[in-house]
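Need tokens for this chain, all 373 residues.
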Amino acid sequence: MSRFFHLKVLLVFLASTANVHSAKHDIKVPHLSGIFLALSDTNLNNTLQQWTKELTAMKDVGIEFFCVRAVMRSVHEDTPSCPLGEFESFYPTRMSRNSSCVKQAITLEADPIGTILNAAKTLGLGVHLGMSFRSNSSYPNFNSTQFYREYAYFQWTIAEELWSLYKDSYGATLQGFYTGIEESNVASEFLQTKDLQGHYLEPLARDIKTLSSELLVWASPYYVGNLTRHNKEDIMTPQFYADWWEQIFWWSPDLDLIAPQDSMGAQGNSFENVSSYLSQIANRSRQAGRKVWSNVELFEVWPSNCSWTPTHSCRGRHPAPIERITAQMHNEAPLVDLLIAWEWESCLSPYGSNDSAALYTDYKQYIEGGTTP
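Here are the structure tokens for all 373 residues:
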């Protein structure tokens, strides 16, 4: 009798577990499947318990994977001795022993990236890693060809080291690499096409694929259609920009996809700007045999009375209202394969700030009930 009782309890437990796991696939409204996670001094020293708490909150709102924006941060801009800039690493890198341009942001005993991967593996979440992120978009020490070649090699060195460190324990959890450069539809970028594609995107993606052909390699460019920010002759139109990316795809067979930022957070895109650009990009991506994501910006400029001008951009950021975010998702989801967002810690974490906690509560209510508060 006791054995049958325990069997019944086990069956009930398994059934309830199955319902929990299937719930995330049963969200009936446009929603986020992935999200960026930015590491900073506020979360860099989180314990395994703290990361498990954060990532559990992610999973509870249907998020299936996240991307660490960068495992190295830029701390000083380019100098003659460090032409790409100076960086601090969030993982125990060998490069800090051999180069004065790379230092540890942590003690050698600490390993925030390993801790995050550990928590994600336990919860069944996928992880993508950005390599380094440069705060300076210019490169005064190089011409275009030299810059993209040198930066691709630096990024590849990081990716190879990360894979070597974590593949044995977290190979199934580590799903891909984010390329880090935020390309845009500013017309001057068109002039750099062959260098960007031929010396950065394709070589970097190709080399990463030698680590594992299953790794996804992707970029998250942006587009601005708000003509108060740029002169019309200075930007690529939706069709031009989409054609540009299709050509890059044909020339870069190892680049898997792009997840364009919707630029509704600070760049001032309208819903019409987004649908115009994203529909064209999605069409051309599929023409090139690629899937396409959209990167939903969850923030707005702050303070709310800040007025952007060409000589004064609003630097503050704040979680946007849930009504705007749900409208973004409804506008973009029909055009793409899935939605990701910027960013967890600053905008959506229930443990980040009072404002991000409030947005988390509103978002959870939205996905569970299909309505905004």
